[in-house]
Structure formats: structure tokens, C-alpha cells
Design a protein that fits this description.
The chain is α+β, with helices and mostly antiparallel strands and 506 residues long. The strands form eight sheets. It has a seven-stranded mixed beta sheet with strand order 19-20-18-17-23-24-25. Strands 5-4-3-7-16-15 form a six-stranded mixed beta sheet, with helices on both faces.
Length: 506
């Protein structure tokens, strides 16, 4: 179609680079999926507590899924108005400016090797010494200490970084740089949402904080330029999408917030993926948490002021189902857990606290480790499978309670997205243990959709957030059906089980 002499673009695309896989999804103007391709990448565990990815494999998977999705949908680069990027946050990559070669595997957000740094930096000012500036406690989760670890453990790297030979990025930055030319003029940038997860950005100024950089010993020459979440970053030079604007970047959880069109203060969503992440929009002011949550940037659309969010991050939810599949071989496919759990009417008194990487919100205990509590001879694989699913719902309730305490806003309904929302048993238990409705939207790929929305807004493919809101609709609602006494008893036992995981690592 041609309008005013120029071809009218039909679609927007999104690269969704997650913890376990990479996808490329093409959406039409109504937010519906036109084509999709997905490929997993290897999870590398060199030592207990260490989690790595191969950045070059992620780049290959990105190229593969772009080509596959376009081919499957018979879509050409000329059909795409723009492409957005959304990504696993905090995962840290350092690479050579001149060659694009990573200096090591990426250190994944779940990795706990920086635990000693957390203790060292907490001695002066405590775990919250940077919270007022960055919204984040000292934890193994964020990028800053991962950068420091690489600088201190790879010989000669610090000097090379200080001289500008080495670049840092979370996965969004690495892919943007590769897509726009790499060593030949690649754009070294990130958006405010990803920058807010490094523990190096000042929430008030939206700029790198020089004092924190000095404290952590991180050279500013490493860092990408911080930009808005929705603007023209550069043109893709990858053959399959050559000339298409890269025009949106959002960390995966913020992208889901945008994809769920939570643009008003108090609106919230929960993503059920490798981990669980509940975000509430707090509008144009950062709200400091007193209940173990994170203060983060929600999004910044072009020149409009940034919006902030409170976030509750749970490290292990969907990853626990994968563990049951891969480490115990109790199920063949992740989806099989629902039918196995349904063989029992309850958890048989079994509780599974998946503190594989310590506990995140609201506890922030890096020295916690996973615990299965309440085992008897009666317990079987059906009970264990139920306990695995229920662990997700219990952890989400803890985060919801913290969110309501900090925001003074009671969530009337929980908007959900992510792979686990296909599990009806889990979603019903979530509604039961929360005692409020749980809603699944018609368009379930909200993370990729949020990145596509950001890119589409920047290029005029979408005219504004009202147009995006009109695309959102409810697919299914689960209403609570559990009596109050049962709910209270289950939650009390869960809380007891959580305390058993504390201080396991001395």
C-alpha cells in the first residue's frame, strides 16, 4: 500500500531476548501476532551459584529467529515500521570495541559469585547504602558488581576498559551494537529502564552516577549512552532487516508493563517467567520502598518525563519447573507439571522454597538456599509438583503484600503475563492464595508487545497510548474459591518454610 508516495508499513517487530531463549515476533497494528520464531540457548553452570550465557550464541540465535520469523510470515524488511528490543535485565557482557568479541561469557542476573562484594560494600552504610540514589539494595542481582568482578578477575582488563577498548552492556546494548554495525559504527546505547538495573544510574538525574562509579571502581569509558525507551537509535544493518529503524528498548519487565498498557499510577502487572516480577506504575515520582521492593524506571517515552515503578523480583519460579524437568526428570516437558500436580488434591504438607540464588524480594538474603519442608512417607511426586507450582503463588503473595504496604494502594485485580499463565491450576491457586481475581489478557506476549509498542510510538506507527489501551482485553479471569481458614493455614506454613532457608551459606 502506498500513501502520499511512500509505502505504508504494516507491522512492527520485537526482539525478545530472555533468560532461556530468544524470540522475534512481528505484530500488526492491533497488537496481534503475525509471525513468531523462538530458539533456546545454553544455560552454563561452571560452579555452584554461577550462571552464564555465551553472548555469541545469543547473537546467533537472534539472527536465526529474525530470519525464520520473516520467512514464515512472508514478511520483508520493507514491511516493518520499526523494531524494538526487550531483554533479560542485569545480565552483564563486556566485549572488545574493535572486534566485538566478548571477553568472557555473560554473567547472568541469577549468578551469585559477587556475594563477597555485597558483604564488603555493605560494611559501610549497610545493604541500602545506595538505595536512595539508585532505588536498589546491594545484591548479587545487579550489573555493577558483575562488571567489577570481570575487571578484577580477567588480567589486564581494567586498563583496557579505562582506555576505551572495552564496552559494557546488558543484552539490549550488546544486540543494539551488533545490529547497527558492531565494530563498524555500531550504536553503543541503552535505555533508562536497563540503566536503572545496573546500580550505576542516578534515579533523579537519569545519568551515570560518578560517585558510585568511583566507589565500585568502574571506568566511565565502558558505559553506553543512556537514552529514552522510545526513540530512533539507529538503522539495522543486518541483511534480513537492513534499513529498519531500531526505535525502542525496554528491560523485559518494564516492557511487559507497557505491553499491559499500565500507563496510570497504581496499575500493575505480574510476569510469570524464569522468575516472577510484579511492577506497579508510580507515575513521575520514584517511591522508595520500606518493604523490600525495588524502585526502578518504568519507561520513558520520547521527550515525556520518565515514569517510575515499584518492583518485586522473585528469582526462581518457572526455573523451578525446569529444574524438576532437567535435574530430577520427573516430567518430560514443562507443561506436564500441571497434569502431574492435578493427581493430588493438595500439597500433602510439602513446601518448596526455591532459594537457588538466595532470596530476592522482599527478603534480599543472598545466603539463603533452597529447602523442601514437610516431607513424610506420604509425600509423592504429585505433592512435590503441587509444591513447585504453589511456591510461585506464595512468593507472589509476599510481593503483593509488600507492594500494597509501600504504595498504600490495594490491588483490586492482578494482571498477568508470561509462560506460566497457561497453567490453569497455578492461576486458580494464585487467585485463591491472594483472595482476589487474577486476569489473563487476550494478547499474552506482552513483553515483546511492549517493545514493539515503544518502537511503534517512536516512528509514528502508533499515535499514542490511548491507541495501545484500546488493544488490551481480558481473555480469562480466575476468581478466588478458597475459604479463609485454609488460605491462612497454607500461608502460615509457607512463611515457616521460608525461614528454614535463611542463613544456609555461612
Amino acid at each position: 500500500m502506498v500513501r502520499g508516495g511512500a509505502p505504508v508499513k504494516s507491522y512492527v517487530g520485537a526482539i525478545d531476548q530472555g533468560t532461556t531463549s530468544t524470540r522475534f515476533i512481528v505484530f500488526d497494528r492491533s497488537g496481534k501476532i503475525v509471525s513468531l520464531a523462538q530458539k533456546e540457548h545454553e544455560q552454563i553452570y561452571p560452579r555452584p551459584g554461577w550462571v552464564e550465557h555465551d553472548p555469541e550464541e545469543i547473537w546467533r540465535r537472534t539472527q536465526d529467529v529474525i530470519a525464520e520469523a520473516l520467512s514464515n510470515g512472508r514478511i520483508h524488511a520493507s514491511d516493518l515500521a520499526a523494531i524494538g528490543i526487550t531483554n533479560q535485565r542485569e545480565t552483564t557482557i563486556l566485549w572488545e570495541r574493535s572486534t566485538g568479541k566478548p571477553v568472557s561469557n555473560a554473567i547472568v542476573w541469577q549468578d551469585t559469585r559477587t556475594e563477597d562484594y555485597v558483604k564488603d560494600f555493605s560494611r559501610e552504610g549497610g545493604q541500602d547504602r545506595f538505595r536512595a540514589t539508585t532505588g536498589l539494595p546491594l545484591a548479587t542481582y545487579f550489573s555493577a558488581l558483575k562488571i567489577r568482578w570481570l575487571l578484577e578477575n580477567i588480567p589486564g582488563l581494567r586498563a583496557r576498559a579505562a582506555s576505551g577498548q572495552i564496552l559494557f552492556g546488558n543484552v539490549d546494548t550488546f544486540l543494539l551494537w551488533k545490529l547497527t554495525g558492531g565494530p563498524d559504527g555500531g550504536v553503543h546505547g541503552t535505555d533508562v529502564t536497563n540503566a536503572s538495573r545496573t546500580q550505576l544510574m542516578n534515579l533523579a538525574t537519569l545519568a551515570w552516577d560518578q560517585e558510585i562509579l568511583a566507589t565500585f571502581g568502574i571506568p566511565a569509558a565502558l558505559l553506553p549512552q543512556i537514552r529514552s525507551s522510545s526513540e530512533f537509535y539507529g538503522e539495522a544493518r543486518l541483511a534480513a532487516i537492513a534499513g529498519v529503524p531500531i526505535a525502542g528498548i525496554l528491560g523485559d519487565q518494564q516492557a511487559a508493563l507497557v505491553g499491559q498498557t499500565c500507563f496510570e499510577q497504581g496499575e500493575a502487572k505480574n510476569t510469570y517467567g524464569t522468575g516472577c516480577f510484579l511492577l506497579m506504575n508510580t507515575a513521575a515520582r520514584p517511591v522508595q520502598s520500606n518493604a523490600g521492593l525495588l524502585t526502578t524506571v518504568a519507561y520513558k517515552l520520547g521527550n515525556a518525563p520518565a515514569h517510575y515503578a515499584l518492583e518485586g523480583s522473585v528469582a526462581i519460579t518457572g526455573a523451578l519447573v525446569q529444574w524438576l524437568r532437567d535435574n530430577l526428570n520427573l516430567i518430560e516437558n514443562s507443561a506436564d507439571i500441571e497434569s502431574l500436580a492435578a493427581t493430588e488434591k493438595d500439597n500433602g504438607g510439602v513446601y518448596f522454597v526455591p532459594a537457588f540464588s538466595g532470596l530476592y524480594a522482599p527478603y534480599w538474603k543472598a545466603n539463603a538456599r533452597g529447602v523442601i519442608a514437610g516431607l513424610t512417607r506420604y509425600a509423592n511426586k504429585g505433592h512435590l509438583s503441587r509444591a513447585v507450582l504453589e511456591a510461585t503463588a506464595f512468593q507472589v503473595r509476599e510481593v503483593v503484600e509488600a507492594m500494597e504496604q509501600d504504595s498504600h494502594i490495594k490491588l483490586g485485580v492482578l494482571r498477568t503475563d508470561g509462560g506460566m499463565i497457561a497453567n490453569d491450576l497455578l492461576m486458580q491457586f494464585q487467585a485463591d492464595i491472594l483472595d482476589r481475581p487474577v486476569v489473563r489478557p487476550v494478547i499474552k506476549e506482552t513483553t515483546a508487545l511492549g517493545a514493539a509498542y515503544a518502537a511503534g510510538l517512536a516512528t509514528g506507527f502508533f499515535q499514542g497510548t490511548d491507541e495501545l489501551r484500546a488493544n488490551w482485553a481480558v481473555d480469562h479471569t480466575w476468581n478466588p474459591a478458597m475459604d479463609a481458614a485454609t488460605r491462612a493455614s497454607l500461608y502460615k506454613s509457607w512463611k515457616k518454610a521460608v525461614t528454614r532457608s535463611f542463613d544456609w551459606v555461612e
